[in-house]
Amino acid sequence: MEGTVRFGGRFVIEDSEPDSIVTPEDFTEEQRMMGDAARQFLEADIVPRDAELEALNYGLTAELMRKAGELGLLGADVPEAYGGLGLDKVSTTLLAETLARASSFALSVGAHTGIGTLPIVFFGTEEQKRTYLPELATGAKIAAYCLTEPSSGSDALGARTTAKLTEDGSHYVLNGSKLYITNAGFADVFIVYAKVDGEHFTGFIVEKGAQGFSIGPEEHKMGIKGTSTCPLYFEDVSVPASQVLGEIGKGHQIAFNILNIGRFKLGAACLGTAKEAIELAAGYANTRKQFGRPISAYPLIGAKLAEMNIRAYVLESMVYRTAGWIDSMLRQAGEEGDTAAHGKEAVKAISEYAIECSILKVFGSEALDEIADEAVQIHGGYGYIREYKVERIYRDSRINRIFEGTNEINRLLIPGTLMKKVMKGELPLLRKVKELGAALLQPMPLPELDQPLAREAYRIGQAKKVFLAVGGMAVQKLGERLEREQEALSALSDVMIQIFAMESALLRTQKLVRKGTSDPANAIAMTSVFVQEAMEKIDSLAKQALAFLEEGDALQVQLSMLKKLMRAPLIDTVSLKRGIAAHVIRTEGYVV
């Protein structure tokens, strides 16, 4: 993709302009119409049958997925040439966010449209695409993604399922098992990974009904009870050689890139559920009275609602910033008519943002957990009762920190992927570290910070310097040992996550201010609060890392440098949160 602007990971060393990002305020009329279509389907077809879906009704789930397919909601990521809509990633992200309110049904749809269908979209042969994509786009067939095994979860390449080519070269014979497969109970098409000759990790398309292929019983889960989750068993399953997905031994390219998409879409789904939890909590707080007043009138309840809204605003800013970047690269990925070239270039575009996809997965899943927890707390004892949906949201949210790669694995991937980009010469990080070393020896007077958001922009710039200083020291001190020092990597990862979160919110708010089409005061307040609290986290993380890397007088020198970088005027977050809470309480829901 010659001439393509590559943003992936650059946020830690470079500043961006507000106009370089996409925000929800930039949605086109067509994008809003797709969101409205999903919302109407949700209200008309899903909400009235919510209890049946949650009881794990295979037939009803498949029936409603077919209806979603008729409306185009399953084919958004499928190219038009194969019966889909071929929409941009901002549109499909909005669909994922909107449908998230469908709870378990949304996960069934997400597993089908994302990790189930996209491997064929990006890696399938022309014959495979024409065979499967039209029916997957309409819901005539349902897809499932089969990677996890009893002995391999995060270590996907440790899979033990094998594939052996028959003597005549016409088929592969699969043996092994898979675990925790979403949609397994009613899926028709399975993306299965196995090792050819026990060595070459490869993807296969396996159809339901193949002799020797069986589906185990449903797992009894803590949450997402309306989704089908079963083990799969392969006993001498004969799969035509034409069903190999991609190249022999290159299955990891499919698995890892599809996981990037899954992580990105998971961030969008967490956003949709977070907004619903805010609505439920704010509505309840306005109706529940204690000591003669609605509990929303009490400052501690208001503070909770404000914090929930701030996290959702920041996550929303991160999600659509990333979606816009991916779209920008996909537009330069070749025409869809040249399917092989387009697929490869599209994967490159998505893999460029592997860091950001992992960040969205970690930040989104943890933000939703915090929001769901506070929503239950605001409901008090009622939040613990199944009759109230926040109880389900609380249970359902817990899986998000586990699947699509655990948050611990993603925390290791974030700095690890950054260093790979550095080693390839894609990021001038080491040069920036050297430049910073010289700058830290000079006086650092505080600049004028009297303009709106000037303090926040300055502090984010200082946070990037903290990352460079601590990260540079870690590389210098630990060298190749760094990849084994997981606590240090996790600390660096969390600093990167906070930087991306702060900057995404800042850029969106700056864009709102420049547009001048609405009052940005609430967005400014949310950005100010988040930046100050994120900087406090970064200060703590940096001290933790420095204490691990240095000791004695050398540590004191580093701590004094950190103090210099962190210096900035404090703001009254209590008063700002009261103002934010007033907006949430008045609208009884998420508000920008």
Could you describe the 3D structure shown?
The chain is α+β, with helices and mostly antiparallel strands and 592 residues long. Among the domains are: 106 residues, Beta Barrel (Butyryl-CoA Dehydrogenase, subunit A, domain 2); 146 residues, Up-down Bundle (Butyryl-CoA Dehydrogenase, subunit A, domain 3), CATH 1.20.140. 57% of the residues lie in helices and 10% in strands. Strands 1, 2, 3, 4, 5, 6, 7 and 8 form an eight-stranded mixed β-sheet that branches. Strands 9-10 form a two-stranded antiparallel ribbon. A hairpin with a 3-residue loop joins strand 4 and strand 5. Helix 9 runs antiparallel to helix 10. It is globular, with a radius of gyration of 24 Å.
Write the layout of secondary structure elements.
Layout: H1 29-46, H2 50-54, H3 58-70, H4 89-99, H5 104-116, H6 118-123, H7 126-138, E1 143-146, E2 162-165, E3 171-182, E4 189-196, E5 200-207, E6 213-215, E7 229-240, E8 244-245, H8 251-287, E9 289-290, E10 293-294, H9 299-330, H10 339-351, H11 354-379, H12 389-397, H13 407-423, H14 429-439, H15 454-478, H16 486-515, H17 521-549, H18 552-566, H19 573-587
Parallel strand pairs: 1-4, 2-4
Antiparallel strand pairs: 2-3, 3-7, 4-5, 5-8, 6-7, 9-10
